[in-house]
Design goal:
Number of helices: 8
Oligomer: single chain
Distance between the termini: 12 Å
Number of strands: 2
Order of helices and strands: HHEHHEHHHH
Low-confidence stretches: none
Helix content: 55-70%
Mean pLDDT: 96
Strand order of the largest sheet: 1-2
Structural class: mainly alpha
Amino acid sequence: MVAWTSLLLPALASAALVFVASSVLHMVIRWHNPSYKKLPNEDAVRDAIRAGSAGPGQYTLPHSIDPKQASDPAMIRKFEDGPVGVLWLRAAGRTRLGPFLGSWFVYSLVVGLLVAYVARIALPAGTHYITVFRLTGAVAWIAYAWHGPADSIWKGKPWSVTLREMVDGFIYGCLTAGAFGWLWPH
């Protein structure tokens, strides 16, 4: 079995590659910009949310947590009238990218370590590059991308957004696979 210490470098390299690639996709190419739409009455919506004193969290609207409540005619009417959705709110204040970027790097490192865990169990030292690439790429793609379809199914996230995120995940998976294939112990 491959030693853990020999997998730290590929995990770290993959996290660094993913970090750089995601920065290019989001800040240089900006191909996710079409994923975000502006409400035509944004100021009125912001005023309404602020007036309700909603803090950071995940909200549903209309809010119904009980099947009996969901079958109430008034609640049925709310669903029919719309809007129906999920809303995520962060704490008020200026967005500071540093904590997000730090958390993203740590997340990418954790993904790399999980990929290392699976590869360590499945592959011996000296495994050919393409075999390492296929296994680690699949595991990384699952980690980076396959939560998205559930969000589209259950939360109404547009499929176009999910598909963009899955392409991102595929790119990150390939970079992770390349790092592991290149640095796999012989």
